[in-house]
Amino acid sequence: MEIREFRNEPLTDFAHPESRATMQAAIEGVASRLGQRRTMQIDGREVSRETTFVSQNPSHASQVVAVFPKGTTEDVARAVGAAASAFETWRYVSAEERSAYLFRAAEVMRQRRHELSAWMSYEVGKTWPEADADTAEAIDFLEFYGRENLRYAGEHPCTPVPGERATLVYRPLGVCAVIPPWNFPLAILVGMASAAIVTGNTVVLKPSSDAPTIGDEFVRIMREVGLPGGVLNFLTGSGSEIGDALVTHPLVRLVAFTGSKQVGLRINELAAHVGPGQRWIKRVIAEMGGKDAIIVDRDADLDAAAQGVTSSAFGYQGQKCSACSRVIVDGAVYDSFVEKLLGRVGGLRLGLATDPASDLGPVVSGRAQKTILESIARGRNEGRLLAGGEAVGDGSGYFIAPTVIADVAPSAHVAQEEIFGPVLAVLRARDFEDALTIANDTEYGLTGSVYTRDRAKIARASRDFFVGNLYFNRKCTGALVGGHPFGGFNMSGTNSKAGGRDYLLLFLQAQSIAEKLA
Ligand code: NAP
User: Does domain 65-288+496-513 fall into CATH 3.40.605.10?
Assistant: First the structure.
């Protein structure tokens, strides 16, 4: 099979009437399938439990998206056991065959693209373009890691040793626990799970309890393309109830986690403990939160900056780890920038995520709405509220108006804590140097951007803006697989660089083999 060079999946242009019609049909098609009972998948078999939980539509909280079993710690043991036995055969399957499963799954996703996006609109409140970008990224991960796996399976040069034939090969690790968040419920889940699978590991996938349905859709696709039972096990249930059992299970060799700092640090700590009979040091990939900043310099194109900041701060209601939650503006252009920013924020339309007219949908859950509103209440005392600041609607969905709080001090709660909602703090800097100092004054280091026309400032920020993903004169969200390998510094995580050439190495161990020549 000829494998073309990797290219990012194009995004859908919903201005096109045909694309709008197919997406609308997908939204209606998915509506007719809401509320169904779904199952876990352990060792290729569907598993139900009497105790269940529901996934809700955050635009319309009384609408049940799907009902799932609440997995138990016994289910954890079963799923890990199934993955451990499947590893004994899956590890010997050729790299070409393993990559082919990913390529086939990518093809199925292309065919069902709008349907998958529609599930995300219902389950986690993504607007059409946001859901579409999530599905495209998931396809990208499958295509990219499929190719990367073949590269890792190829030859790797060793310095010649006289009288010996030396080679280096990469081997899988074993059972991988994959624990994704709800905010990129397809892309991140598919990225982590497919990286583990394609490199020859087997997986116990525990989706977020806010987004199990889209995870289940992926698991079904992998079954449809013929992935052997036991290679990908799907375990639903509360992270706080079954997460520890999964992370500490002695047969788990690797944990791939993306989520909050709090849970990531806990996993890292628990995984360090060596359980009875455990023969390895567990590896942990933990990608965590951010408090990302955009610097607007006095030499910036202020219209472009206002547009980029609005999109970075409020795209998907600010619920991206890469979202701009601080804009740091040079005092010389502060007032004119803020005016332009408010003009754009005022034009954002808030509504049902499934409605193509909406720029913003709801936040993911009632719990999220409550904590975001609490942060806003605190933020009101830390600066000047210029936009939003409250819940919107009749309470049937979890909507929050896009919120801008200006004149915030760098040490304020809204300038330091990850709020993970549509809340932007505006900070005034004396000059560019001061802006850079403020930008770096956080425990995180995920994404950042600078708007400036000054090349010297671009060079200065390239050296000293301490974030894993740095951008100039563009938004700080929207990293592309292959083009912008993703992962941050400091408390933003282990810098795994998802979608980059180093990523699969995290799921592999290298073996050096040398043979003395006769
Ligand atoms: P979260 O609350 O940490 O949950 C993430 C996952 O961990 C969920 O599947 C959750 O399951 C599970 N979990 C919870 N407690 C656990 C435990 N004790 N042991 C094992 N697993 C446990 O994060 P979230 O709210 O889903 O996601 C938002 C966070 O993710 C933000 O902080 C955001 O910045 C971060 N994020 C980072 C990146 C990145 O690349 N750096 C990308 C996206 C998101 P339940 O749902 O069942 O609790």
Answer: yes
